[in-house]
Design goal:
This protein is mainly α and 514 residues long. Strands 1-2 form a two-stranded antiparallel ribbon. Strand 1 and strand 2 form a beta hairpin. The longest helix is centred in the C-terminal third of the chain and has 32 residues. The protein is globular and about 60 Å long.
Length: 514
C-alpha cells in the first residue's frame, strides 16, 4: 500500500472512529428493529376488507373504490387467494394508480390476533438472547437477529397469500428473532463503551421510536400507490443492507477490530479495564438476583411501562382509522408524530441525566427515580385527558404525541438501571424484564380486540385509556418504592470452578453513588 493510500485511510479513520460507527449502526439497527415490527400495524389497515357502513362514507381512501361489497372481485382460480380466504380488490389509489391486491375478511379479534402473535416468539428469546450474547458476543446475536428478521419480513406477503395460519407462523418466527436483539446490545456496550458514556449509548435503543416515526408515513404513502405488500418488501430489503454493514464494520471487542487506531483502543481499554485483568462471573447467582428488590423494580416497571407503549403503537393506526376517520396517508403521518417526540426526549433526557450525575446534583438513585416518575406519570395523566378529549382529532394527536414524548425519558430512568445495580448481569436482567413486557404486548392486543369486537366505538376506547392510565401510574409507584441506583453485592459472586485462562471483560457500573 502506498503512502498516499495510507494517508487516505488515516483521514477516513480520523473522520469516524470505531465507536462512532458502532453508535451509528446501533442507532440504525434499532430504527430498523421497530420498522420490521410496526410495518404490519399500518399495513393491516389496508390488508383487511373494510366493514361496509351504509350510514357513513368516511374512510373512503382506506376502502379504495370498493364501497360496495359487490365491487369486490372474488378470485375463483387456483391462485393463492382461494387458500388464504382473502378477496381481490381492484381500486384506484390517491395518486391515480390502478392496484389489484388481495385483502382479507378478518374480524377485529382475528386482526388483533395477527398483531399479538408476534409476542409469542418474542418472549421465548429475551432471556436466552441476553445470556447467549454474554457467552458468544453481542455482535453475532444482534446481527443474526436482524438478518433473519429481515428475511422473514420479505416473505410476509407470500405467507399472507398462502393462508392465515402461514402468516401467524411467520409473525411468531419474526418475534423469535427480534426478541434477542434488545438484551444482546448490553454485552456490546460492556466491552465497547466507557462507563460514563453508557447512558448516552442507551439512547440509541430509543432510535426504535425514530424508526417507527419514519416507517409510518413512508408505509402510508407506499400503500396508497403500490399496495400493502410493498411495505414489507422495502423494510426487509433495507434490513438486509444494514446486516451487511453491521457484520462488515462492527467487531466483538476493540482488541479484535482490524481498523481501530491504537489511541482509540487504549482509551476504551483504560476506561473499561483490560480483558486480562478481570473475569466475568461464570454463572448467574439466581437466588440473590431474584430476591433483589432493585431487580424486581426494573422488571415490573418495564413490564407495565411497555404494556402501555405496545398498546399505543399497535393500536394507534386503528384508532385513527376507525374513530378519527383519517385516510391511510394522514394515518401514517400523524401516527408517526408520537414516535418522533419520544426519540427527541430520549436523547435529551439521557444527556441531562448524565450531566446531573457528573455535577453531583443528584445521586444515581435519585436520578433514576426522578426520570422514571416523569416518564410514566405524565403519560398516565394524558391517558385520562384522552378519555374526555380523544374524539377531537387535534386533541387526540397532541395528547398521543405528548404521552410518547414524555415516555422517552425512561432512557434516563429505569432502562439503563441494570448497568447501575449489576453490570455483569445487565443483559440477563433486561432479558427477564423484556420477557414480562412481551406477555404484556400480547395481552394488550387481545384486550383491545376483546373490547372493540363488534363495537368499535369511542366509548370502548375510553375503557382502554383508563386501563393505560392506571398501568402507567402504577409502574411509577413501583419503581419509586423499590428502585435503586446502588451497585449490588452479588454483582461479583465468587467463582465456583476454574474456567482456565479465558478471561472476559467484567463490565462496570455507570457510577456507584448514593
Amino acid at each position: 500500500m502506498s503512502n498516499t493510500e495510507k494517508r487516505g485511510l488515516h483521514r477516513v479513520r480520523n473522520l469516524l472512529s470505531c465507536r462512532q460507527v458502532l453508535n451509528l449502526l446501533t442507532m440504525l439497527g434499532f430504527m430498523l428493529n421497530y420498522a420490521l415490527r410496526v410495518n404490519l400495524t399500518i399495513a393491516i389497515v389496508d390488508m383487511v376488507v373494510p366493514h361496509v357502513n351504509t350510514n357513513s362514507t368516511s374512510n373512503g381512501t382506506l376502502a379504495g373504490n370498493a364501497t360496495d361489497i359487490n365491487d369486490i372481485i372474488h378470485n375463483n382460480s387456483s391462485s393463492s387467494g382461494s387458500s388464504s380466504g382473502g378477496v381481490f380488490t381492484n381500486f384506484t389509489s390517491a395518486d391515480g394508480v390502478d392496484v389489484l391486491e388481495e385483502r382479507f375478511t378478518w374480524n377485529a379479534q382475528e386482526t388483533n390476533f395477527v398483531l399479538g402473535c408476534f409476542f409469542w416468539g418474542y418472549v421465548l428469546t429475551e432471556l436466552p438472547g441476553g445470556r447467549l450474547a454474554e457467552l458468544i458476543g453481542g455482535r453475532r446475536v444482534f446481527g443474526h437477529s436482524m438478518l433473519w428478521a429481515s428475511l422473514l419480513t420479505l416473505i410476509t406477503p407470500l405467507a399472507a397469500h398462502l393462508s392465515y395460519v402461514a402468516l401467524i407462523v411467520v409473525r411468531v418466527a419474526l418475534g423469535f428473532m427480534l426478541g434477542a436483539s434488545w438484551p444482546a446490545i448490553h454485552p456490546v456496550a460492556a466491552v465497547w463503551i466507557p462507563p460514563m458514556d453508557r447512558s448516552k449509548f442507551m439512547s440509541n435503543m430509543m432510535a426504535s421510536s425514530l424508526g417507527a416515526a419514519i416507517t409510518m408515513p413512508v408505509c402510508g404513502y407506499l400503500i396508497s400507490v403500490a399496495g400493502w405488500a410493498s411495505t414489507f418488501y422495502l423494510t426487509g430489503a433495507i434490513g438486509l443492507v444494514w446486516s451487511l454493514l453491521w457484520f462488515t464494520f462492527v467487531y466483538e471487542t476493540p482488541a479484535t477490530h482490524p481498523r481501530i487506531s491504537a489511541e482509540e483502543r487504549r482509551e476504551i481499554e483504560e476506561a473499561i479495564g483490560t480483558s486480562t485483568s478481570k473475569k466475568r462471573p461464570s454463572y448467574v447467582p439466581w437466588g440473590q438476583l431474584l430476591c433483589s428488590p432493585a431487580v424486581w423494580a426494573i422488571i415490573v416497571t418495564h413490564g407495565l411501562s411497555v404494556f402501555g407503549f405496545f398498546t399505543v403503537i399497535n393500536q394507534l393506526p386503528t384508532f385513527m382509522s376507525k374513530i378519527l376517520h383519517f385516510d391511510i396517508k394522514k394515518n401514517g403521518l400523524f401516527s408517526s408524530l408520537p414516535y418522533l417526540g419520544k426519540y427527541v426526549m430520549a436523547v435529551a433526557s439521557s444527556y441531562l441525566a448524565d450531566h446531573l450525575r457528573h455535577k453531583g446534583t443528584l445521586s444515581t438513585t435519585a436520578t433514576r427515580k426522578l426520570f422514571t416518575s416523569f416518564a410514566l406519570i405524565t403519560p398516565g395523566l394524558l391517558m385520562v385527558a384522552l378519555v374526555f378529549l380523544g374524539m377531537d382529532p387535534t386533541w387526540a394527536v397532541a395528547l398521543f404525541t405528548l404521552a410518547l414524548f414524555a415516555h422517552g425519558a425512561v432512557t434516563a430512568g429505569y432502562l439503563g438501571n441494570g448497568l447501575d445495580i449489576a453490570p455483569n448481569f445487565s443483559g440477563t436482567i433486561f432479558g427477564m424484564a423484556n420477557s414480562l413486557s412481551s406477555f404484556g404486548g400480547f395481552v394488550s392486543t387481545w384486550m383491545v380486540g376483546a373490547l372493540t369486537y363488534n363495537n368499535e366505538s369511542f366509548h370502548q376506547w375510553q375503557i382502554v385509556f383508563w386501563i393505560l392510565a392506571v398501568t402507567y401510574i402504577s409502574a411509577a409507584v413501583v419503581f419509586a418504592i423499590l428502585g435503586s441506583g446502588d451497585l449490588q453485592s452479588w454483582n461479583n459472586p465468587p467463582e465456583r470452578v476454574k474456567i482456565g485462562d479465558v478471561a472476559q471483560e467484567e463490565g462496570m457500573p455507570l457510577k456507584n453513588e448514593k
